[in-house]
Specification:
This protein is an alpha/beta fold and 335 residues long. Helices cover 25% and strands 29% of the residues. The protein contains eleven helices and 17 strands. Helix 4 packs across helix 5.
């Protein structure tokens, strides 16, 4: 048994308060992580507020976890006590279904999410299956690595899934916690990057991240000015937009891919797809193998999210900072 000290929401929308619970005896294939840092994702807010209707309370949020292995079950593979590791949205998968055997464990029908029906990383310890507890490359900065395990892989995976080439011209809608990482990845990929933003005050900062140009997304003329030029657009926002305006900026056979959890149905005119052989897709996070490759890519190119650090005890202050739209650009809690 292990006593865990955490911060939990007692009900939907409530502030987080100190919370203790006990983990049962560790399973044969389980790993306990002593949390060093945990990123704060907008999905944590959605779960705290029960926006998706699947939260269970009390709820300990936190699914961008980095720390070190504190305990392992007898059948754990590839890890030892003291290893520096990370864990993201997924904490377990069955490892025997077609998706798992095909290297797509994040699509496993019986996968376990780190903060759905269990307690996450706003705590001193968190538990997961060894397969999703991923060893950190030795040169990775732990203080900034947490957001890579959710936000990072969420925007890295579509680049691979969509076959984005270094010669492509690409766009990123929304330059926040997800979008700013997408810009950094796509710049390192070799692409010409267009950022869509409605906030002119961010322009200089967006260009410094690696975007080649910033287009005012609130200006229809600005969108029309780049019509037919982009091979790939990644939407990182979770709000309803004029999707047809963005489809018109795509070149023939271009792709619009969303990772933003837009709650309303997306209005996609059929002829906007048909006439240019364009496509629309989406994806959640990414597989175990691709997450490891992303971490190596980050070390090779020196890519990290831009983070603001709060102490874990100041979690409610950090939540308010995120809710008010003040985060630049990801928040990390230090345990």
């Amino acid at each position: 048994m292990r006593k865990v000290h955490a911060y939990a929401a007692a009900e939907a929308g409530s502030k987080l308060t100190a919370f203790q619970y006990e983990l049962p005896a560790i399973g044969n294939e389980e790993v306990d992580i002593k949390v060093s840092y945990c990123g704060m994702c907008h999905s944590d807010l959605s779960m705290i507020n029960n926006d998706w209707g699947m939260s269970q309370f009390p709820l300990v949020p936190g699914h961008e976890i980095v720390g070190e292995v504190a305990a392992i079950g007898k059948d754990v593979k590839g890890l030892k006590i003291g290893d520096k590791v990370g864990m993201g949205w997924n904490s377990a998968a069955c490892m025997h279904c077609n998706q798992c055997l095909d290297g797509k464990q994040h699509l496993c029908g019986s996968s376990e999410a780190t903060i759905v029906g269990r307690h996450g990383g706003f705590a001193d310890y968190v538990r997961g299956h060894w397969s999703w507890v991923i060893a950190l490359p030795k040169d990775l900065d732990m203080a900034k690595a947490g957001p890579l395990f959710c936000g990072g892989i969420t925007v890295f995976s579509p680049i691979v899934l969509s076959g984005v080439q270094p010669t492509d011209k690409v766009g990123v809608i929304g330059v926040g916690g997800l979008g700013h990482m997408a810009i950094k990845f796509l710049k390192a990929w070799g692409c010409e990057v267009t950022a869509f933003s409605s906030n002119p005050a961010k322009t200089a900062e967006i260009l410094q991240m690696g975007a080649h140009q910033v287009v005012d997304s609130s200006n229809p003329d600005a969108l029309q000015g780049i019509a037919g030029s982009l091979d790939f657009i990644l939407n990182t926002t979770n709000v309803t937009l004029d999707w047809n305006s963005y489809l018109t900026t795509l070149a023939p056979q271009g792709k619009l891919h969303t990772v933003g959890a837009v709650l309303e149905p997306m209005a996609i005119p059929a002829f906007s797809l048909i006439m240019g052989e364009k496509s629309v897709g989406g994806s959640p996070t990414g597989s175990i193998g691709l997450t490891k490759k992303m971490l190596e890519f980050c070390v090779r190119h020196g890519i990290y999210p831009t983070v603001e650090e709060f102490q874990m005890a100041d979690v409610n202050e950090a939540i308010a900072h995120l809710e008010e739209g003040k985060a630049r650009f990801r928040i990390v809690l230090k345990m």
